[in-house]
Amino acid sequence: MTKTEKGRHQERHDPHWIEWLTGLVSAVLIAGMLGWLGWEAFTREATPPDLSITVLTTEKAATGHRVTFDIYNTATTTAAAVTVIGRLTEGDRVIEENHVVFDYVAAESKATGAILFQADPAGRTLDIRPAGYTDP
Questions:
Q1: pLDDT of 50
Q2: Are 117 and 98 in contact (CB under 8 A)?
Q3: CB 38 within 8 A of CB 78
Q4: Is 133 in contact with 51 (CB distance < 8 Å)?
Q5: pLDDT at position 40, please?
Q6: Which of 21, 30, 94, 104 has the greatest number of beta carbons closer than 10 A?
Q7: How far is C-alpha 44 from the geometric centre of its chain's CA atoms?
Q8: pLDDT for res 13
Q9: Which of the 8 DSSP states describes residue 49?
Q10: Residue 77, SS3?
Q11: Sign of torsion, CA 24 26 29 33?
Q12: What Cα–Cα distance (Å) separates residue 103 from each residue in 28, 30, 35, 55?
């Protein structure tokens, strides 16, 4: 036997124990994920979209004033074409009203948007609310 043949690596035909362990852990994780998805699919009740809004900031912008907000959907179904209306009022008089449309707000999630006003919201009543949606 020559020196080069002696140091050559010989491949084994039986798998190493770490391969068996990796395969077993992977199989358990996949089975667990499939079980969880199946459980959620059959036991979770589909609730209609439940939308709420939280105003984050009001700041001056190049074209007026930007009111940034988060819209939350706490339900288990997605809302599409979500219309949000923003209204500035002073007493009973509406100063300005604008709206923005979100393509969708996914189930159990939030999205962020902004409504632009020409009038300054400071010192006025600001009302931002969801006005409607469609089923996707």
A1: 95
A2: yes
A3: no
A4: yes
A5: 83
A6: 104
A7: 19
A8: 77
A9: -
A10: coil
A11: negative
A12: 38, 33, 32, 20
The residue behind tokens 């809302």 is: 79
Q: Which residues of the chain have pLDDT under 50?
A: none
pTM here is: 0.72
Q: Residue 115 in contact with residue 101, Cβ under 8 Å?
A: no
Residue 132 tokens, joined: 């409607």
Provide the token pair at 19: 């391969």
pLDDT given for residue 46 in this prediction: 87
Give the integer Cα–Cα distance in Å for 30 and 32.
5
| Whether the Cβ atoms of residue 75 and residue 105 lie closer than 8 Å to each other | no
How much is the pLDDT for 127? 95
pLDDT at position 7 is 66
Measured distance CA(18)–CA(22) in Å, rounded = 6
| Calpha distance 74→6 (Å, rounded) | 67
